[in-house]
Amino acid sequence: MDILQQVRQLTEQLFPEVVGHYRHLHSHPELSYREQETAAYITAFLQREGIPFRNGIGGYGIVAEVKGEKELLDDCIAFVADMDALPVQEENEVPYRSVNEGVMHACGHDAQAAALMGAVKMIHSLRRHFAGTLLFVFQPGEEQSPGGADLMLRDNLFGEQIPRMIIKQHAYIDLPAGHVAFQSGTVMASADEVHLTVKGQGGHGALPHELNDTVLAASQIVVAMQQLASRRSNPFHPIVLSFGRFIAAGATNVIPPEVTLAGSLRCMNEEERRKMLVLIPKIASDTASAYGCQCETLLPEGYPCVVSDEAVTREVKAAAAQWLGEERVGEYPRRMTADDFGFFTQQYPCCYYRFGVSASNKKTGALHSGTFLIDEEALHTATGLLAAIALKCLKM
To answer: N or C: which end of the chain has fewer CB within 10 A?
Structure first.
């Protein structure tokens, strides 16, 4: 029996255990940077299995290491899964629904982490049959800036190891369980929060000549920002600048002295991103000044673009096609959503692929919604494929 046949056998044997991990994680979600119990559950599992690991990296981050014992080999591949949940109230009526009020795994990070747990156990049991080093990263804080990926990298995540490639899979509701999808190049946008505060002399709405209309100034800033995205950016590099918060705490006849705005800048090109981050405060300040107001701008450091290296993606995709069959391997569209995996892709050759989680007999709830729930059959694919990619892509 060759090593990949063993992986298929182990995938079947471990499937009930992986489902158990998934259900535990799903029912005990924790918000970004608060994943204490999640990390404890994973480290307890690694200790039971005798798998070497380091924890407390960039917060609650964990990295497990499996070294092949077949021969000495310098090759190293890393895999990443997120651990954090979202501030969403679960609406699913399942025995393993969230026990934490207002917190839910509505993005599939529970499935990612459970699959990685199954894969590292398989790989560890097969270590006598391969050479090289495989690293398994359990990451906190993907859903919220500054991003757990950045924090872990700053905290010397890989030590002296230099991964030749880093791979991450993510749940995808637009594909049925058993299918995966790939894309190369810039696959997701950067993400930066934009916070603006417009200040002026408030007063009676019937006496506009005696005050500075902060509401009008803020409204013009929103319009100017849309023109900034359409007229000052390169049209060959998509940009979205959206404002979802506009708070003017006045009254029907009261212009408030302060208006706050909050939005999100998404760019598919890092050079355009840097240009926009310079232009936004300038345009906001100049627009406010035209109405006798001032505008303060806060731009917290956000996430860079996610880039799937073409050569790495081609190699990983070929391994997936061999494992699943070409008919189950497709492409996903680029989109303006974001993932802090971008911090990894800025420093290492990476591949970001998606695994289908939808059931054929019922509708999967929308991502980030209270009805999101995977078809657990997807864990078959997510677990076995990680192990197969690891063993196929090692330079043995």
So the answer is: N
Q: Of the listed 30, 35, 82, 84, which one is catalytic?
A: 84
Concerning whether 142 is annotated as a catalytic residue, the answer is yes
**Active-site residue, selected from the candidate residues 82, 110, 142, 309:** 142
Half-sphere exposure of 278 (CA within 13 A, CB side): 7
Give the whole-angstrom CA distance, residue 312 versus residue 319. Answer: 11
Domain harbouring 172, CATH code: 3.40.630.10
Q: Please indicate, yes or no, whether residues 290 and 309 belong to a single structural domain of this protein.
A: no
Q: How far apart are the first and last CA of the chain?
A: 18
Give residue 240's domain range: 190-298
Q: Are residues 354 and 332 in contact, defined by beta-carbon separation less than 8 angstroms?
A: yes
One domain for residues 126 and 25: yes
Does the pTM of the predicted model rise above 0.85? yes
What strands, in cross-sheet order, belong to the sheet with 190-199? 239-247, 258-267, 190-199, 294-298
pLDDT tens figures, 141-183: 999 999 999 999 999 999 989 999 999 999 999 999 999 999 9
DSSP code of residue 381: H
The domain tally of the chain equals 2
Which of 298, 333, 360 represents a domain boundary (last residue)?
A: 298
Query: Which residue's structure tokens are 């760019």?
Result: 267
Q: Residue 245, exposed/middle/buried by CB under 10 A (0-12, 13-18, 19+)?
A: exposed
Residue 201 is part of a domain; what is its CATH number?
Answer: 3.30.70.360
Residue 28 has φ and ψ, to the nearest 5°, of -130, 60
Question: Which residues are registered as beta bridge partners of 194?
Answer: 263
Which of 298, 329, 356 corresponds to the end of one domain? 298
